[in-house]
Amino acid sequence: MINDWITGTTTLYGIMGYPVSHSLSPIIHNTAFQHLKITSCYVPWNVFPEKFETALRGAQALGIKGLNITIPHKETALYLCDTVSDEARSIGAVNTIVFSENLIRGYNTDAYGFSQALQTCNIDQINNNILILGAGGGARAVAYALGNLFPESAIFISNRTAEKANKLVEHFNNMFVKKNLFKLVTASDMKTIQFSLVVNTIPTQSEHFDEQLFKRSTGTAIDIAYSINDTPFLSMAKKHQWIISDGLEMLLFQAAQSFKLWTNVDMPTDAVRRALYSYIGRRL
Hints:
The protein is of the alpha/beta class.
């Protein structure tokens, strides 16, 4: 049990977001700590956006060793860190904090997690058209990963706020060698383009998705969110015979990299995966 590891020398880690009560990260990291017999504990903190800077600096003052950062704080965290990894700076978002030598050090492990999770999908069938739904911190990590994995593709960005999507397009087009690798796509454009990979990064309901997106072709649909049952986005894709995958494996792989940054120890991912899937009642 977790309480067996709470002593006078227990080191503390956690996750800050809003909301965060649904997070499976405590299951992942506490399982890893117990498996490796590391005297540490990982807890979630609900932090309102206007309180995030205070909470982050408070965590540093309390001697907390590291944090994961999730929605809606990933982009804000980038500007509060004393040092930022090259990858986090390129992505424009931080999801992992290491408190070290009185400094707040920022990293991004989401792109790594997404890249590793993508290997479990049928990526051989991905053609030149890829669609990312959303333009927040999660979308930035996905865009960075896809730009590196598929540099000859056309990667389209769709977001309800076109200005935010356009900023993401400009940001990554300035980063990659291929000109216009990233493109802004409108709702009308999406009715004619056939995509072989669609990645949803928006935590929203099915009525916000156009079912026509999945009727014109088949491919792979990925939702970086995770739940016990299929998300509305994945349910719609599955209905039209698309290969589907949620964010559970991405969560696991990004967590493993965060864990290594904090502890310099490899996470026992097989053991953690078994515990995680058992917890949510999903078969391996």
